[in-house]
Amino acid sequence: MRLIIREDPKAVAYYTANYVRQRINEFKPTRKRPFVLGLPTGSTPVEVYWHLVDFYKRSEVTFRNVVTFSMDEYVGLPQSHPESYCSFMHRHLYDHIDLHPKNIHMLNGNAEDLAAECQRYEEKIKEVGGIELFLGGIGPDGHIAFNEPGSSLESVTRVKTLAYETVLANARFFGGDVNKVPKLALTVGVGTVRAAREVLLIITGAHKAVALAKCIEEGVNHMWTLSVVQLHPSAMIVCDEDATLELHVKTVRYFKSIEQVQEQLIGRQNISLKGSISKLTSSDISHQFSAATDPMASSAAGVQVDPSNSDSESSAHDDYSTRPESEDDDVGSLTDSQHSDNGSDTSNADMSSSTNALAASSSDAQCTTGFSGSSVPAATVGSPF
Ligand SMILES: N[C@@H]1[C@@H](O)[C@H](O)[C@@H](COP(=O)(O)O)O[C@@H]1O
């Protein structure tokens, strides 16, 4: 799992939208091989959608061959109601991009047979080849879509009774009146989200800090349904600093250090968009060391990641987008501490064995390159520890 921490909700939204844009562009969707995108509602993704609309208007992405599936919908609320998720998706995204209407999939909360509607949805997802990227938000109780605490981690699309906490949280969209909030919803299941080839969750605000901590620092648990991301081979959480308030300092530092290692030691050019290492040789690492110890070259080799700087984010991604597709490339000569459980994701490196990922990486480099230094020079890596 990757945890990307950005300064504030604005930076989170930009990072996320930019990532989606690049995933679509890298995928090069066609009519026969569309990019299948799962999409959330809620206030958190609104700014992500603004950016996507903006990218579309600038011709930086097209949704012509994108197929979408919304996560959920209230039961019994007319589709034309401004707070129906159908209205929401049209208002914030669908009405402003070149998505073909036949490629838009939403749950019908007014279907006569709700169970059949849910089954139809699951079948449709299968028919288009499954979801490539599921974007999601969470509720303060850690729910994904409307998978409230206690939902089966194997659940699929179904009717769900909303938890009181969710009804309270969503009352703000209904003039603060809890009585106006529908008490039932149709929602994709935890299993539906898990089945996606990639999951990206956006979490912002101090009110979601407990949920984030429960979900990533404790065990997989149906009371915190987001925790299921721990089992997903390709999951990423993008959060702001406020959402990290309940995490251990060690956790935050570790995940931040991963980005530093990628930038400064492994090299941005060797990391694919999805975070896997491609075609890295020991001499690349050796080069990083020698370049970094050369004061004239260190600025080129050790570019500091500025999480709050959208421009630097943009250029990082622009670099990725010019690279050939390489998500599944061989990992090259890196050692175990840089491999994930699935063998391709640096961010999945075992936390206990490499809490200090910088040190782990440097010792690998010593083994493979014969570098005789005792550790990565602190000035080079900007050690967060
Ligand atoms: N069903 C939706 C979820 O999909 C969403 O993640 C959550 C968070 O909303 P917000 O982003 O407004 O906090 O709201 C609702 O419960």
TrEMBL record:
GO terms for biological process: carbohydrate metabolic process; glucosamine catabolic process; N-acetylglucosamine catabolic process; N-acetylneuraminate catabolic process. The keyword Hydrolase applies. One of its GO terms (molecular function) is isomerase activity. CDD domains: GlcN6P_deaminase. Residues 292-385 are annotated as: Disordered. It comes from the Eukaryota. Residues 314-325 have a biased composition (Basic and acidic residues). Catalyzes the reversible conversion of alpha-D-glucosamine 6-phosphate (GlcN-6P) into beta-D-fructose 6-phosphate (Fru-6P) and ammonium ion, a regulatory reaction step in de novo uridine diphosphate-N-acetyl-alpha-D-glucosamine (UDP-GlcNAc) biosynthesis via hexosamine pathway. This is Glucosamine-6-phosphate isomerase. It comes from Coemansia spiralis.
